[in-house]
Specification:
Keywords: Cell membrane, Disulfide bond, Endosome, Glycoprotein, Membrane, Transmembrane, Transmembrane helix. This is Tetraspanin. InterPro entries: Tetraspanin/Peripherin, Tetraspanin_animals, Tetraspanin_EC2_sf. It is found in: Cell membrane; Late endosome membrane; Membrane. The protein is mainly α. The chain folds into 2 domains: 84 residues; 71 residues, Cd81 Antigen, Extracellular Domain, Chain: A, CATH 1.10.1450.
Length: 212
């Protein structure tokens, strides 16, 4: 009986000895899995933080440029519609980018799930609005073109009085090699380029119309 007990004990010990390498392998595998998950989490967190910081700085830069342009524009502002001014668009765009990116930065730093959800949902809403805007612009293409033409003609009237619009119009005419909204005749609405106006600019167009 003693020999039988010794054999059973030795068999049990042998079985436990056989199981030990398997359990060690499982422990090593779980440890490596934890390291991989931790590394992936740290990498994603760093990328999200880096991405948010870049757009946060860009948003602040755009906002600063918009504020500076609007302050300068107030000295020469003659256009009736404020939303015609690129400075207003830059200010609005800068505010949105600055706030949304700041939420992303804080969410990534503090591991705040609520802030990250706000950041994600806000980006999703912005993407949907951009898609809807593009679809509506294509669906109502004629109305969009008419609106842009009227806006350009209204800006041409005050071309030399609003430096902000003047720089924008000059850039568009040089870039796309165009003249006015529909053609050079649009410049007749300007008091300096009208044929009845005195001076060398009568019946003429700005120099940016002549760029080829």
């Amino acid at each position: 009986r003693r020999q039988t007990r010794k054999c059973l004990v030795s068999e049990r010990r042998g079985a436990s000895a056989v199981k030990c390498p398997h359990s060690d392998a499982m422990a090593d595998e779980s440890e490596s899995t934890r390291h991989c998950r931790r590394f992936s989490y740290t990498l994603i967190k760093f990328l999200l933080f880096f991405y948010s910081c870049i757009f946060w700085l860009i948003g602040g830069f755009v906002l600063a440029i918009g504020i500076y342009a609007e302050v300068e524009r107030q000295r020469y502002k003659t256009l009736e519609g404020k939303f015609l001014a690129p400075a207003i668009i830059l200010i609005l765009l800068g505010i949105v980018m600055f706030i949304v990116s700041l939420v992303g930065v804080l969410g990534a730093l503090r591991d705040n799930l609520a802030l990250l959800n706000v950041f994600m949902y806000t980006l999703t809403v912005c993407l949907i609005l951009e898609l809807l805007g593009g679809i509506l612009a294509l669906a109502f293409r004629n109305q969009t073109v008419d609106f842009l033409n009227k806006t350009i003609r209204r800006g041409i009237v005050n071309y030399y009085d609003d430096l902000d619009f003047k720089n924008l119009m000059d850039y568009v005419q040089r870039k796309f090699k165009c003249c006015g909204a529909n053609g050079y005749e649009d410049w007749k609405v300007n008091m300096y380029h009208n044929c009845s106006a005195p001076g060398p600019l009568a019946c003429a167009v700005p120099y940016t119309c002549c760029v080829t």
